[in-house]
Design a protein that fits this description.
- The protein is of the alpha+beta class and about 425 residues long.
- Helix content is about 45%, strand content about 10%.
- It has 15 helices and 10 strands.
- It has a 5-stranded antiparallel β-sheet with strand order 1-2-3-4-5, covered by helices on one side. It has a 5-stranded antiparallel β-sheet with strand order 6-7-8-9-10.
- Strand 2 and strand 3 form a beta hairpin.
Length: about 425
């Protein structure tokens, strides 16, 4: 018999009913109940024990090396003494367990901090020491006369799972060591190890650092996007550019990239945004207009760069300038309204007429001449264009050409007012 475990016993008061909770919330409790399920031949008795334990039928629990004991009451009040036996570890097995515990500073620190980490059990198992009960290790004894686990011993095991949730050192006591004896032997071995072994290298064991990842503090919140795109470095140098390299074009592309990157970053950080910055993409002709429109904060295209973009887009210089205005007013949708004339279907025409009729009071709507998706105010240099999405775009005539006068609106009267307002501003400034 192990001299360390004579007369060592702990008694735990009866626990209240657990009608609204499970019997195992920790790794230790689950492992104990799994051992019960693997040991019991009759699953019905395990379920009966769970009901008894849940109803609070288990009295105070006595835990000592190799045995746990409690009085369990049947629903009719009949009391039964239930015992569950678990083989104690030998002195040699305890010695090997303690060797494993002091080999790693993390194991020793956890034990001294009254914690029994699961990875210590794994290391002990690798050394041949089984702390947790396996199949058939929980041996039942009950005065009800059952030869296998009955509802009374199963109820006791369920209560022990709750005790292990609170204090996994209960398992070490069942295996043959109380805390005082365990800590005394650990301290003695740690002292000898410090005297005999060279100092451990600085650093943290990788397995322990990985295991601690779950308790790291949360990441800080994401920073706000910059107020404006960054200014790309200037390419103006005293050295002439390489053949085929246009510094002005490169500066424009760099500014465009900075502006696009800031826009995408702002959308990515905006959790309320439902748009995706990478949906679709412009055609080559549209992309030339986009480049000519310039990024926010960048200088406008001019000179050879503008000529190259006009050629690449298949437009003349004046056409490109009008396309740039349309792009700035509404992107690819604005450009489509500028350059595409189409005839709305019957349903779209009906919606357009209804919108026009409801936009003005009786007698106030200006006379309009219809051609496809374009409504021109008779006798005035203003026009409404209907986009395929049902929005109205304001236009006005400049130098014999229709040009955008602002962004789109759902209400045609609002769009026409924007065109008239743009004309009035030009007249005042002129």
């Amino acid at each position: 018999m192990n001299d360390h475990t004579i007369d060592t016993e702990r008694t735990f008061a009866a626990l209240p009913p657990a009608r609204e909770r499970g019997f195992a919330r920790t790794w230790w409790g689950h492992a104990w109940l799994k051992a019960l399920e693997d040991t019991a031949l009759d699953a019905q008795q395990v379920r009966t024990g769970r009901r008894l334990a849940r109803a609070g039928a288990v009295g105070a629990v006595s835990v000592r090396p190799g045995r746990i004991t409690a009085v369990v009451h049947d629903p009719d009040g009949t009391a039964h003494r239930a015992d569950v036996l678990l083989e104690r570890l030998s002195d040699d097995e305890w010695a090997r367990f303690l060797d494993v515990a002091v080999e790693r500073s993390g194991h020793l620190a956890a034990l001294l901090d009254h914690d029994l980490p699961p990875h210590l059990v794994e290391d002990a198992t690798a050394a041949g020491i089984e702390l947790l009960p396996g199949i058939g290790d929980l041996e039942p004894e009950c005065d009800c006369g059952a030869w296998d686990h009955c509802g009374h011993t199963a109820a006791l095991c369920h209560l022990v799972a709750r005790l292990l949730d609170q204090d996994p050192f209960v398992l070490l006591l069942m295996r043959g060591r109380d805390e005082r004896a365990l800590f005394g032997e650990l301290s003695a071995r740690d002292t000898v190890a410090d005297a005999d072994e060279p100092p451990a290298p600085d650093g943290v064991d990788a397995a322990e650092a990985y295991a601690a990842a779950c308790v790291l503090p949360p990441l800080p919140p994401l920073p706000d996007p910059p107020r404006e795109p960054g200014l790309p470095p200037s390419l103006v140098t005293e050295a002439p550019p390489a053949p085929g390299v246009d510094p002005a074009a490169l500066e424009l592309l760099a500014a465009q990239t900075a502006g696009a990157a800031r826009g995408w970053l702002s959308e990515a950080l905006d959790t309320s945004s439902k748009t995706h910055p990478f949906d679709g993409g412009p055609t080559v002709a549209q992309d030339a207009v986009r480049l000519a429109a310039g990024a926010p904060g960048s200088r406008a295209c001019e000179g050879a760069v503008l000529d190259r973009l006009a050629t690449g887009s298949g437009r003349g210089k004046a056409q490109l300038e009008r396309a740039v205005r349309a792009w700035r007013a509404g992107g690819s949708a604005g450009l489509s309204v500028l350059e595409e004339e189409w005839t709305p279907g019957e349903e779209a025409q009906a919606r357009a007429r209804a919108a026009l009729e409801s936009a003005w009071e009786d007698g106030e709507r200006p006379p309009l001449r219809v051609a496809g998706n374009r409504w021109t105010v008779v006798g005035a240099g203003h026009q409404l264009r209907l986009g395929r999405d049902g929005r109205w775009w304001p236009y006005r005539k400049e130098d014999g050409h229709w040009v955008p006068a602002g962004g789109a609106a759902l209400d045609p009267a609002t769009a026409l007012a924007a065109a008239e307002g743009a004309t009035a501003m030009d007249e005042e400034s002129g």
